């Protein structure tokens, strides 16, 4: 084991364990912990989703306040540049594997804010997205449907946004820097996160 | 029952008191509680114009240099500041500020309008009359670039700190051009040839 190269060690999580992988995938699918970043109107759909009517806990889904323990990252509405900084930092804090679900038309293409000066138009330029739910706003059923979709995608291994983020990090980083200006992590993020 | 009774009372009063109205101002003020309220304010502030729009809605026009004086006076009757809204009259080169006041005791909503030139727009703050004005003035400052002298919180734009000089709600702000430069042009919606137009 000591011969293992540094490179291999870094990409440890990217490797697949052929024998146990189906088990792991099943386990991941059945225990999604949600980090809900309720940015816009879509945040209103979270309470009915969590409470008795649609009760997502029966699928093993749990709202979770700590990004360090989350699997599923929910962006529930319009994203302003100011919010996007927080979203990116939160996303990077989450453990791999992590899945991103965007919620509503706004993160997809700006939605009704399509020519607004302060709403990010294409969310997937800045972070990889696994499932996008269209609609303004999608009802809790649609969100459930999106969650089922992400479960299917986890099972067949196509929910690979976290891999894409690593592989195309330059692309995402470039877009982020274009929007916020170079050195935004040092300038802004350090104010909230001392260790960056 | 109340709804039915009130107009009758007012009709009776109207017959008695039309003599008082011509004393006040050119636009005739109706003899309702709104009319009386306007007359009362205008008596103390003859430089302003006032009229009644409709039930529970009155309107004042005040020259910009006396706005503070007027609002101080009006705050005796109108205890609450609801909003400071700004209208950008681009062709006339003016900003119109609308102070929206609410009278808690009389249940009357008042618009106090004033116009200032667009260039180097400056106003005295009304924070000492209504502390809540701090927020509204900051908003007007961010969106239109009006400077409220005496307000300590006129900081950089709260949402987008890197573009302080932009005042996005001014009529001459090129929104689409700004969006293109900031967020990139690779959206179908901005396709000028409209081949891939989405909306
Ligand atoms: S898509 Fe509609 S509901 Fe969702 S954040 Fe945008 S405006 Fe609000």
From TrEMBL, chain A:
Name of the featured protein: NADH dehydrogenase
Sequence similarity: Belongs to the complex I 20 kDa subunit family.
GO MF terms held by the record: 4 iron, 4 sulfur cluster binding; metal ion binding; NADH dehydrogenase (ubiquinone) activity; quinone binding
Keywords: 4Fe-4S, Iron, Iron-sulfur, Metal-binding, NAD
GO-annotated biological processes: aerobic respiration; electron transport coupled proton transport
Source organism of the structure: Thermococcus celericrescens
A Gene Ontology cellular-component term: respiratory chain complex I
Lineage, broadest ranks: Archaea, Methanobacteriati, Methanobacteriota, Thermococci, Thermococcales
SUPFAM superfamilies linked to this entry: HydA/Nqo6-like (SSF56770)
Pfam families per UniProt: Oxidored_q6
Gene3D superfamilies, alphabetized: 3.40.50.12280
All residue ranges annotated as the NADH:ubiquinone oxidoreductase-like 20kDa subunit domain in the record: 38-149
From TrEMBL, chain B:
Organism of origin: Thermococcus celericrescens
NCBIfam families, A to Z: PRK06074.2-3 (NF004736), PRK06074.2-5 (NF004738)
Protein name in UniProt: NADH dehydrogenase
Residue intervals passing through the bilayer: none
Stretches assigned to the NADH:ubiquinone oxidoreductase 30kDa subunit domain: 61-178
Region feature (Disordered): 1-29
Family classification: Belongs to the complex I 30 kDa subunit family.
GO MF annotation: an example: NADH dehydrogenase (ubiquinone) activity
PANTHER family linked: NADH DEHYDROGENASE [UBIQUINONE] IRON-SULFUR PROTEIN 3, MITOCHONDRIAL, NADH DEHYDROGENASE UBIQUINONE IRON-SULFUR PROTEIN 3
